[in-house]
Amino acid sequence: MIRIGVDLGGTKIEAIALDEAGRELARRRIASPSHDYAKTIDAVRGLVDALEGEVGARGTVGIGTPGAISAVTGRIKNANSTQLNDRPLAEDLARVLDREVRVANDANCFALSEASDGAGAGRRLVFGVILGTGVGGGIVHDGRVWIGPNAVAGEWGHNEMPSRAGPSLPDTRCYCGRRRCIETFLSGPALVADHRRSAPGASASLDAAAVVALAHAGDVQARATMARFYERLAVALAGVVNVLDPDVVVVGGGLSNIEGLCDEVRARLPAHAFSDALATHVVGNRHGDSSGVRGAAWLWPP
Q1: What's the whole-model pTM score?
Q2: Mean pLDDT for the stretch of residues 270-289
Q3: Residues 62, 146 contacting (CB under 8 angstroms)
């Protein structure tokens, strides 16, 4: 029996097939349908069919999704891919795939992957961070994901950015309806928005990768944008450290590919954590910025 994992990202949907030992057999990635739930369901079905056709076997299916399944309604809640909210995702996918489907928060899947055999392997308490289209987090303790009674464990992205992150924080608005959520400062789109606020002449076509490239090339305004980003990330993570005191913070998502990001955060974090010394490690992921798709596959354990 193979295991198939699917990661429903805001900009891409990725699927992977693993054998019983966790070895990768096949992988596919497509752009996410924009704000269209029905097309998202069709896209997942197409990816699963393609993988099973490629490896010649039928598999279990695990789904990593933004948001979580509500214990009250059984439907998706709190997803920044808002077309998923209040939808019976697990039921709809089970119907089109003709099998049971397990669904978990994408950051939880990422944390599980890295705690199992990734950058957090061997650590008792792992906090997995997603910095991408949104900002999420997952908690794994002694090899098990902690979900919590409200299914919001690890959702640090919807705490308010602490004021110590800098003077005159912009009055940002989040899709969740709240103000100054961490996600509105540390996601990829938030990084671009912050740069445009400080550099009004910036090209309208800039994305996060372009801002990072400008900073590495010595652009003064882009370097200032990145300095703000690193400081805000360190301040926001200090809140996590003060509450959870994890052994390791593993960084994932598209922004985890920024060269030197973990070094920048490690240098800044001790000034904000409530400790005379900081033993928590901040590290990049071992399985790439799409590590969560492996965790989705492992929602069906051996």
Answers
A1: 0.87
A2: 94
A3: no
pLDDT (tens digit per residue) in 138-170: 999 999 999 999 989 999 999 999 999 988 899
DSSP-derived secondary structure for 148-186: -TTS-TT-GGGSBPPGGG-SS----B-TTS-BSBTHHHH
Domain that holds residue 20: 2-109+290-297
Give the closest residue to 248 by CA, choosing from 279, 274, 291: 279
Alpha-carbon gap, residue 276 to 157, rounded angstroms: 26
Q: Is residue 302 part of a domain?
A: no
Cβ-proximal residues to 200 (8 Å cutoff; 6+ apart), any chain: none
**Nearest to 78, CA basis, from 33, 131, 5, 136:** 136
pLDDT in tens, 86-99: 999 999 999 999 99
The answer to whether residues 50 and 157 belong to one domain is no
Q: Kindly state whether residues 82 and 168 are assigned to the same domain.
A: no
Please give the backbone phi and psi of residue 176, each rounded to the nearest 5 degrees, phi first: -75, -10
Token pair in block for residue 86:
């209040």
The total domain count for the chain is 2
Query: Does residue 139 contact residue 153 with C-beta atoms inside 8 Å?
Result: yes
User: 141 and 35, same structural domain?
Assistant: no
Q: Where are the alpha helices (DSSP H) in the chain?
A: 37-55, 89-97, 106-117, 183-186, 188-198, 208-216, 220-244, 261-268, 292-297
CATH no. for residue 136? 3.30.420.40
Please check whether residue 116 lies inside any domain of the structure: no
pLDDT of residue 64: 95
